[in-house]
Design a protein that fits this description.
Number of domains: 2
Number of strands: 10
Largest sheet: 10 strands, mixed
Shape: globular
Radius of gyration: 19 Å
CATH topology of the largest domain: Alpha-Beta Plaits
Distance between the termini: 23 Å
């Protein structure tokens, strides 16, 4: 059986996230599996590198699926991009090693969160960024971000219910850059917990607005309490940029 690896992008605005749901067929995984089943002439399960939430976008999502189909990958690429919805596209496709697993083999991910820092709305970018009219302190947010680098227990920065799974993660880079009125926050790490980046963003924005000090981040990490961190920001500003292997 062949193992096919794909690289795809999608605008998550109208979808209920990546993961297939019994109550809705409006998911990225659901749309892909329905199409792959027709293309391959057999039931197909697709495995994504991670489960992006409802409203989250992707430029570099990686997925793989197994099939007995003999269709060449070039024809698969053309078929998928012909029949997929206009807000989902496959940008690359190839034969993968038999044991390749897009989620289990991933060593890290890069996400970006965009903020429009202006009192004037941006009607063309509003689906991909959070609008924050208050002036944000860039240097204060960068100082706060420095406390988050390295390996920590990020239990305070997740919406997941308490369980046996480890909440220890490593963040290798947080880059905060401003171009005109758009601020791009780039997060690179070995993995991220449920809602982790969106809660990190809520906390960093509080620092940027002067509502908490950069130094408070150290105590928040140590507390492990969700009550001590910022709000969960909207999904629309978040984009999965790249998966590392």
């Amino acid at each position: 059986m062949r193992n096919i690896r794909i690289l795809l992008q999608y605008e998550g605005t109208r979808y209920q996230g990546w993961q297939r749901q019994s109550s809705s067929d409006n998911t990225i995984q659901g749309k892909l599996e329905a199409l792959l089943g027709k293309m391959c002439g057999e039931p197909v399960e697709i495995i994504g590198s991670g489960r992006t939430d409802a409203g989250v976008h992707a430029r570099g999502q990686v997925a793989n699926f197994h099939t007995n189909s003999t269709m060449p990958v070039e024809e698969m690429l053309a078929y998928m991009n012909t029949y997929l919805p206009g807000d989902i596209a496959v940008t690359d496709i190839c034969e993968a090693a038999p044991r390749f697993h897009s989620r289990l083999n991933a060593s890290g991910k890069c996400y970006c969160y965009h903020v429009i820092n202006s009192p004037i709305p941006d009607v063309f970018f509003r689906r991909y960024a959070l609008e924050v009219p208050e002036q944000l302190d860039m240097e204060a947010m960068r100082r706060a971000a420095a406390y988050l680098l390295g390996e920590h227990d990020f239990k305070a920065f997740t919406s997941a219910k308490k369980g046996k799974k480890s909440t220890i993660r490593r963040i290798d880079e947080i880059r905060i850059e401003k171009k005109e009125c758009v601020i791009t926050f780039t997060f690179v790490g070995n993995g991220f917990l449920y809602h982790m980046i969106r809660i990190l963003m809520g906390t960093l924005l509080e620092v940027g607005k002067g509502e908490r000090s950069p130094e408070s981040i150290e105590a928040v990490l140590a507390s492990g309490s969700r009550e001590n961190v910022g709000a969960l920001v909207p999904a629309k500003g978040l984009t999965l940029m790249k998966v590392f292997y």
